[in-house]
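sorry to bug you again but im stuck and you know this stuff better than me. below you get a single protein, a line of residues and a line of whole numbers that encode the local backbone shape. mainly i need to know what kind of three dimensional shape the backbone takes. anything you notice is useful, everything is just below:

***
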Amino acid sequence: MTKKLLLASTVLAGMTAVASAADLPRRAPPPVFTPIPVFTWTGFYAGLESSYAFTDRQRIITNGTTPVTVGNVAAGRRLSTVTTEQDAVGKLGGTFGYNYQFTPGSGFVIGVANSIDWTDLTKNRFVIGAPLAGGVVGNPAAYRQSLDWLGTLTGRVGYGFDRVLVYGMGGLAYGNVFYDARFFTPGNALQFAGRYDDFETGYAYGGGIEFAVPTDSFLNTFAFGKYLGLKYEAVTVKVEYLHYDLGSRNVVVSAVPGVGTGAYVSRFTTEGNVVRAGFNYKFSGL
């Protein structure tokens, strides 16, 4: 009898414990942790830009090729050195390239970029040489120098601070130059003329800063690419400075038959600076 009572008590106690456990609140499942995406500069990009280009005292150096023309330069009747300064706002430009970031979030970034800008840099310069004997007005001369467009193919090395990229760059510069020299008699009759219009190459170097606009920023409203169905990961805005040098070129300024004799050589130099601002669409990487 005693054993039956003990067994019944044990069963009753177990049922009571089970019932009490059933009344306890259920434990909620642990929350799912979703990591915040880390921004990376790795990927292809392409965009549009505008530019402001300016030069600083470019020189045109003229020398004679015959005793008479050498003497005219030495006497100042033909100026040996003329300086030109140019500046202009570029109409439009474009860029494309690729970046690779070693450590997403913050880390070193390397890349390559190719940009082409319509600079439309043009300068006309009119000068008059030293007066001739008897007070006759000196020989006039007219120069024209222009850089129609400028391209740069540069390597980039920088550091990304999350959505901010600071970088330096350097590499190839190329563009189309136009040089023109015309020398006149004191009576303004064309006496010598020469010109050059062709493709030139050189080098460029500089640096810049770029910012990746957050996806929830109102600035993305102006990213018209999304209205055209363009698929991209981010929109970035940039400002950069470059110094370019396309070297020098000799232009033979030949005599006009029946008006002049001999020839001159005018050496033109194309060197200057450009500030570019624009935006890029960043696409996925490899």
Summary: The chain is about 10% helix and 55% strand.
